[in-house]
Write a structure and sequence with these properties.
Order of helices and strands: EHEEHEHEHHEHEHEHEHEHEHE
Structural class: alpha/beta
Helix content: 25-40%
Radius of gyration: 20 Å
Length: 298
């Protein structure tokens, strides 16, 4: 039986939720039916170790997405895939621009977040982004999203026909998580402490600023600590907020952790202060780790 060659494309192997969900999906494809490979713009990243050893990894040499049209086109011609899958709007747009050159290939794009969040976060190019959604997404063989809410936004906010859209829920790699939590570890070593953990990129969307502001008036019976796992452009601003609220002894910005599950499992509660999410991998991983969750909406 002919195995279908499936190419997964990611810009970077950074520790983001969309990247982790894509790699988890790729790793768990049925090898009796599919032969997965991966293309990245730059192979240097913390999630490189996540990719299973039997999956070939191709790098385009560190080019930006906007400058990768010809390099990606050449690589796809070389590999001759049956199916190509990518995620995140900018790489989705690039892939759909290449679709006319590969009439025998199925193009599947994954939208990881609510589209209005992307548009509102790029105000200078919001009209162009909305136009690209309307022009390019209808030509995908399938648009997959981790929640129905994302599809509903394409229907109601973008005014897009969503007949080629489908929900494919994110997965948690329970085998890797089970192995990791055999040796749980919380970075702050203190007895009789209420332990909180958050994980995700340090970005406005993730709502760490409002969590820190809320915790300045938090007075539980026991002393408490919060470890925030992740990196991002808001790091300096968040550290300044931690210092000005007098929470420097309580809240620790721990940086990126490729496999955070041993820390999550060691915490008493996993906190999710995000302003918006599609289907957060970290909540699924927290459930798989046996940690209780607390979340907050607007």
């Amino acid at each position: 039986m002919h195995k279908k060659k499936v190419i997964f494309m990611l810009p970077l192997l950074c520790a983001g939720g969309a990247e982790r969900a894509t790699i988890t999906l790729m790793n768990n494809l049925n090898r009796d039916k599919f032969s997965p490979e991966m293309i990245v713009l730059n192979e240097n990243g913390p999630l490189k170790s996540w990719i299973h050893n039997d999956i070939p990894l191709h790098s385009l040499g560190g080019k930006r997405v906007s400058r990768s049209f010809f390099a990606l086109k050449s690589k796809l011609k070389e590999l001759e895939p049956d199916i190509v899958i990518t995620t995140m709007a900018h790489s989705n747009f690039l892939l759909m621009l290449l679709k006319p050159f590969f009439p025998k290939t199925k193009f599947i794009i994954r939208e990881a977040v609510i589209p209005s969040t992307i548009i509102q976060g790029h105000k200078k190019t919001s009209l162009a982004i909305k136009a690209l959604y309307k022009i390019l997404y209808p030509y995908a063989d399938k648009v997959i999203s981790p929640s129905q809410e994302i599809i509903d936004e394409f229907d109601n906010f973008i005014k897009l026909n969503t007949k080629n859209h489908a929900v494919v829920y994110n997965q948690a790699d329970t085998k890797a998580i089970s192995k990791a939590i055999e040796n749980i570890h919380y970075p702050v070593v203190e007895d009789d402490v209420l332990r909180f953990v958050c994980t995700g990129r340090l970005h406005y969307q993730k709502g760490y600023d409002r969590l820190i502001n809320a915790l300045k008036d938090f007075s539980p019976e026991y002393p408490w600590k919060l470890v925030i796992l992740g990196e991002g452009k808001e790091k300096q601003a968040l550290q300044k907020l931690i210092d000005t609220t007098g929470l420097g002894r309580n809240i620790h910005l721990h940086g990126n952790v490729t496999a955070p599950w041993s820390i999550i499992a060691a915490a008493d509660y996993f906190l999710l202060p995000s302003r918006c999410e599609g289907m957060p991998n970290v909540v699924l991983e927290s459930l798989a780790s046996g940690t209780q969750q607390c979340s907050a909406g607007e």
